[in-house]
Write a structure and sequence with these properties.
Blueprint: H1 3-7, H2 12-32, E1 35-39, H3 43-54, E2 58-62, H4 71-74, E3 78-79, H5 88-108, E4 112-114, E5 117-121, H6 127-139, E6 144-146, H7 149-155, E7 166-170, E8 174-176, H8 178-191, E9 195-197, E10 202-208, E11 211-217, E12 220-223, E13 226-229, H9 237-242, E14 248-249, E15 252-258, E16 268-271, E17 274-278, E18 284-288, H10 296-303, H11 312-327, E19 338-345, E20 348-349, E21 355-358, E22 365-369, H12 373-390
Parallel strand pairs: 1-2, 1-13, 2-9, 5-16, 13-22
Antiparallel strand pairs: 3-8, 4-8, 5-7, 6-7, 10-11, 11-12, 14-20, 15-18, 15-19, 16-17, 17-18, 21-22
The chain binds flavin-adenine dinucleotide.
C-alpha cells in the first residue's frame, strides 16, 4: 500500500462518488484504456492523473523528489481570470479553470477560499488601459468592476486603500493551498487505481518504430503507451524525453506563509509591490512582485536555480520584507511568525502561454508545461485526459500547441 493509499481522507459521500467513477474507469480500462506514465507530481501532473484515471487510463505518476515539491509548493496560488490574462483564448482557458475549481471543490475536498480579488493601481500610466480592460472583462462575462472607498471599507475593513488611483474587484476569484490541493488530486487518482512513485526520476524513453513502449526510471523500466511531461521548470525535459525543445524563461519568485493568525484580510489583495491572501485556517500568504534588491551575490546564487533559500535567516529576511510591504496596506499586520518562506521557479514558456499537446517529434509524449498552473490545473487535467483517452483534439488548446512560434512574453 502506498503513502497515498494510507493517507486517503475522503468523506463517505466523496468516497461513494469516486467509487462510481472507479467502476466506470474499470469498465473503460477493460475496453482499451492506455497505460500512461506522468512525470511530475506537481498540481498539473496530479490533476492530469485524476482525470486520466477517471477516464479509464491505467496511470502511474512518478516524481524525482515528491508531490508538490517545486512550483506547486511555493505558488501564491491565486485562482483567477483577470484582465491581464490576454488574449481571449487564454482568458477563456483561465475562466474554465476557475469554473472547474468550483465544480470539483466539494467532490475532492479542495481547500479554496472564494470571495474575489482586489487589484490596486497606484500609477497614472495604467489608468486608461484599466478602464478599457474592465469593460472588456464585463463583455467577456467576468464579474469585474471598479470599487470606490465606501464599498472597499465594507469589503475589507482592515485594509488601507488610500493613495491608490483605482481598485478592480474580480468577484469570481479565489485562492487555494496548492500543496493540499495537489495531494487531494493525487488521493482521488489513487482511489481510482493510479499508482504514485517517488523519489523516482524519469531518465529515458523506450521506443520501437517511433512508438513509445515504456519509460526508464531511477527505479527501473515501466511499460507505457503514453508519457506526459508535467515536469514544470525542468528546462531540459522537453529535449531529453520528447525530442522537442520548450523554450522557457528564468522566472524565480518568492512567497512566505505565516502561522495561523486572527483574520486580517478577506480576499486576495494584489497591491503594487506585494500580494496577500489569508487562508480559511488563518495562515497569511505573501508574494512579492519585484523580488529582492539586485546585487552580484543574488545573481550568482540564482544561477544555480536553488529550490530553497540558503539559510533560514535569509528566508526570514525575505519574509519580513514582504510583511513590511504588506503593512503599508494592512496596518494591523505589525508582526508575524513565519512557517515558511520559499524561492520557486515558475514553469514559464518564453511567450508566457501554456505548452499543451503531443510532441511533434514523438507523438506518444505529451507536453504539459505552464504558468498560472494553479488556476489552470483542473481544466488542463480534463482536456489532456480527453485528448489522450479519446484522441479528440480540444479546440480550446489550439493556441497552445508545442509547435507554435514562440514570440516574446505575451502576458
Ligand atoms: C512564486 C510563484 C507564484 C505563483 N503564483 C501563481 C498564482 O498566483 N496563480 C497561478 O495560477 N499560478 C501561479 N504560479 C504558477 C504555478 O504555481 C505553476 O504554474 C504550477 O505550480 C506548475 O505546476 P506543475 O505541476 O507544472 O510544476 P511543479 O509543481 O514544478 O512540478 C513539476 C514536478 O516535476 C518533477 N520532475 C521534473 N523533472 C522530472 C523527472 N525527470 N522525473 C521525475 N519528475 C520530475 C519535479 O520534481 C516537480 O515535482 C506561481 C508560481 C510561482 C513560482
Amino acid at each position: 500500500m502506498s503513502d497515498f493509499e494510507r493517507n486517503l481522507r475522503l468523506d463517505r459521500r466523496q468516497f461513494l462518488q469516486l467509487l462510481g467513477a472507479a467502476a466506470l474507469a474499470r469498465k473503460a480500462r477493460a475496453a482499451a484504456g492506455p497505460r500512461v506514465v506522468i512525470a511530475g507530481a506537481g498540481i498539473i501532473g496530479a490533476s492530469i492523473a485524476f482525470h486520466l484515471a477517471k477516464a479509464g487510463a491505467s496511470v502511474t505518476v512518478i516524481d524525482r523528489v515528491g508531490p508538490a515539491t517545486h512550483a506547486s509548493r511555493g505558488s501564491f496560488a491565486w485562482i483567477n481570470a483577470t484582465w491581464s490574462k490576454q488574449p481571449r483564448s487564454y482568458h477563456q482557458l483561465n475562466q474554465a479553470g476557475v469554473q472547474r475549481w468550483k465544480s470539483l471543490q466539494s467532490l475532492l475536498n479542495l481547500p479554496v477560499r472564494w470571495g474575489g480579488s482586489l487589484e490596486g493601481n497606484a500609477g497614472p500610466s495604467l489608468e486608461a488601459e484599466l478602464v478599457r480592460r474592465v469593460a472588456e472583462q464585463q463583455d467577456w462575462g467576468e464579474r469585474t468592476r471598479f470599487v470606490e472607498s465606501i464599498e472597499l471599507s465594507k469589503l475589507e475593513p482592515g485594509v488601507d486603500f488610500s493613495g491608490l488611483r483605482q481598485v478592480v474587484f474580480s468577484e469570481n476569484d479565489g485562492a487555494t493551498d496548492p500543496v493540499a490541493a495537489t495531494h487531494a488530486f493525487l488521493n482521488a487518482a489513487v482511489a481510482l487505481g493510479a499508482r504514485v512513485e517517488h523519489p523516482c526520476e524519469l531518465t529515458g524513453v523506450k521506443l520501437a518504430a517511433r512508438r513509445l513502449t515504456g519509460v526508464q526510471t531511477s527505479r527501473g523500466d515501466i511499460p507505457a503507451d503514453r508519457l506526459v511531461l508535467a515536469t514544470g521548470a525542468a528546462a531540459d525535459a522537453g529535449k531529453r524525453f520528447a525530442d522537442w525543445d520548450v523554450p522557457l524563461r528564468d522566472a524565480p519568485g518568492a512567497t512566505a506563509v505565516t502561522t495561523p493568525m486572527p483574520r486580517l484580510v478577506q480576499r486576495v489583495l494584489w497591491m503594487p509591490g506585494v500580494h496577500v491572501h489569508q487562508r480559511d485556517d488563518g495562515r497569511i500568504v505573501l508574494g512579492e512582485e519585484a523580488g529582492p534588491p539586485q546585487g552580484e551575490a543574488h545573481a550568482l546564487r540564482l544561477q544555480a536555480h536553488p529550490n530553497d533559500f540558503p539559510a533560514r535567516e535569509i528566508a526570514l529576511e525575505h519574509a519580513e520584507r514582504m510583511r513590511a510591504a504588506a503593512q503599508r496596506y494592512m496596518p494591523g499586520f505589525t508582526r508575524a511568525e513565519f512557517e515558511s518562506a520559499r524561492i520557486c521557479w515558475r514553469p514559464l514558456p518564453l511567450d508566457g502561454y501554456p505548452v499543451l499537446g503531443a510532441s511533434p517529434a514523438r507523438p506518444d509524449v505529451y507536453l504539459a508545461i505552464m504558468h498560472s498552473g494553479v488556476t489552470l490545473a483542473p481544466v488542463v487535467g480534463e482536456l489532456v485526459a480527453q485528448e489522450i483517452v479519446n484522441g479528440q483534439p480540444a479546440d480550446s488548446l489550439a493556441d497552445f500547441r508545442p509547435d507554435r512560434k514562440f514570440g516574446e512574453l505575451g502576458s
